[in-house]
Amino acid sequence: MKPAAYRLGALPVFILLLACGGASTASQSSSNSGSAVTKETLVWSDEFNGASAPSAPDASNWTYDTGAGGWGNQELETYCAYGSAKVPCDPKNPNAYVGTDGYLHIVARNPASGVYTSARLKSQGLRSFQYGRIEARIKMPEGQGMWPAFWMLGDNITTVQWPASGEMDIMESIGKTPSTNDGSIHGTGFTGTAIGASYSLPNGEKFGDSFHTFGIIWSPKKLQYYVDSPNNVYATYIPANLPPGAVWPFDAGKFFFVLNTAVGGAWPGPPDKTTIFPQQMLVDYIRVYAEPGA
Fold first, then answer.
1. pLDDT tens track, the chain, 294 positions
2. Which residues contact 31 (CB under 8 A, 6 or more apart)?
């Protein structure tokens, strides 16, 4: 996923540091060939529970990117913070909220002809991590022009800018291919779609039909992407996958989360007459695990 101004995106154990406050392709492994993480410790999560009425996402975990302008991808939506009354945002119909159902709702709306609103949450400056197993349980929105994503950017983005900060796209899908999740990495010398892999559901099932878990197992000099189980690794990325001159940014420090649903853009294309609004991405939880003693 391409961020606004920032984009257009030898240890034997897994380590996690918690802070509060292109022509090359990746090597891929078949289903059930990944390394399961055992004896894990849950070190942080947002379960999106406990709301007695629809409410704002936890401000100790989440802030927002807001506004329009295409976000470097020719996107059509205006991103709205919870409670924003700045037109076209509507505080009575928020684009991001925690529901009484125990889910985070990120809602794409079409309040007027040619006008779209949505939300982009980020944990920048609040929660960031390096290494471990990181996953989210998500039900995607559906329809032409929808572009949901769960991704991470380096904390150093404010000093080195994108793409030097690095980007890990853990869950990313578009309405044209609702049965497919794309997992990719970006950094200096490997932007765009040069290093990525796809995971498709069988038998025509769509990621909008039910919840699925999207995750990474992140260790020094290695990223493993999985769907539904850490034993179901579908892509492994290592420095050797990078093209000549590219820089591996994923051991340089901590990364923060981004959750958003874009509308339109160069990749998905715009909504059409088949697209139904509102559409929403539901997030059951985000969890971060580390091994004992790491």
1. 544 433 333 222 333 333 333 333 343 333 333 444 457 899 999 999 977 889 999 999 999 999 999 999 999 999 999 999 999 999 999 999 999 999 999 999 999 999 999 999 999 999 999 999 999 999 999 999 999 999 999 999 999 999 999 999 999 999 999 999 999 999 999 997 679 999 999 999 999 999 999 999 999 999 999 999 999 999 999 999 999 999 999 999 999 999 999 999 999 999 999 999 999 999 999 999 996 555
2. 232, 234
CATH of 23-290, one of 1.20.1250.20, 2.60.120.280, 3.30.2020.10, 2.60.120.200: 2.60.120.200
Catalytic residues: 167, 172
Question: What is the pTM assigned to this prediction?
Answer: 0.88
In the block, tokens 């497919």 appear at 180
